[in-house]
Specification:
125 residues; alpha+beta; Lambda Exonuclease, Chain A
């Protein structure tokens, strides 16, 4: 079996998310986790762009409507943060659309809202 795409980068991002969850637990708003996560990424020297605008193309031409990803890490991994009791298919669909729109191959859904443990999913397009 081949290596996972961007395995080491994903491992580092999830490690930073686990540290945020360990420190804050669940119960805060998404914006609190976003700020704390950005600080943790910086502490781990993980390059990121916050609130990255993603262009959407139709038949090779850009649409006026744009998406805004919570974070793009390492220039190639879209990271969507949540503060929900449990992830659903809606969040996965949103991230898949972001991947399709950008041509990026790897996305992470990170949910700080589930009780007890950090919930996360790695999606590949």
């Amino acid at each position: 079996m081949g290596d996972l795409l961007l395995k080491d980068e994903v491992y580092r991002i999830i490690g930073a998310a686990i540290e945020v969850h360990r420190e804050l637990g669940s119960g805060f708003l998404e914006a609190v986790y976003q700020e704390a996560f950005e600080r943790e990424l910086a502490l781990h020297d993980i390059p990121f762009i916050s609130q990255q605008i993603l262009k959407i193309f139709y038949k090779g031409r850009p649409l006026n409507k744009e998406y805004c990803a919570d974070l793009v890490c390492f220039g190639s991994i879209i990271v969507e943060l949540m503060a929900l009791q449990k992830l659903s298919g809606n969040e996965e669909s949103q991230l898949i659309n972001y991947l399709k729109a950008t041509g990026m191959k790897v996305g992470l859904l990170i949910n700080f809202g589930s009780h007890g443990t950090l919930e996360w999913k790695r999606l590949i397009l």
